[in-house]
Amino acid sequence: MKKMTLIILLLAFGVWAKAQKNEGEVTFKRTTSWTKMNDQMTFLSKQQKEKNAYMFGNIDISTQTYTLFFSPKGSKYEEKEENTNGYSWRKEQFIIYRDFENETLTDVIDFLGKTYVVEDSLERPQWKILNDIKDVAGHICMKAQIKDPIKNQVIVAWFAQDIKAKAGPERLWGLPGLILELDINNGACVISASKIEFKKLTTELDLPKKIKGSKIKEVGYQQMIEKHVKEKFKEEVNPFWSIRY
């Protein structure tokens, strides 16, 4: 009888421990290298790229800190209030909500001086899962890849299979494990987990009662990005001086 009770307790603890790893808070460092970004602009001449590298000098790297709250129900990703190291001249509103139960998204995003509320159904990104593995924040992660054809970005994600959550930083999600790192265009921008805290969430995933901004669907938001990127490429100007990379 005692042996059976012990087995039941161990099984219950295993279920509890597993559940605890599906919910919590992740701190991410988002680091952008403006020199690497400009090097990938094919329309820029070698002289222009060298001039940009000289102009950036010691302010090449921009760093911000973000928080991701995650659970089986949904996720929320936003910039932390704290001041971070590095140089950043643009403070933007970028709050990303995912409702996995109802399969909807609600994103509050500043774009070219105006705030938009992107509301739509969730559409799972078309990830390609690869065989590579590496350690991120103490978790063995698998590699996945996706391409953003509008921004011309190859995005590599590293996800932890031991954390059974669909969530991820930025606007990305949908892998069989929590995304702990994103690498955009070979190091031009890296978003990597620096701290993971497993805990029970209360109101962190709740939507505000009032959200200010012009409502728009996902397709409309992507069309605005595409129009801006094409215009700036035609002008031979880096479009990401004015919008999020």
Automatic annotation (TrEMBL):
Superkingdom of source: Bacteria
Q: Which UniProt keywords apply?
A: Signal
The family database entries (InterPro entries) matched by this protein are listed as: GLPGLI (IPR005901)
What is the residue range of the signal peptide feature? 1-17
Protein name as it appears in the record: GLPGLI family protein
Q: Which organism is it from?
A: Flectobacillus rivi
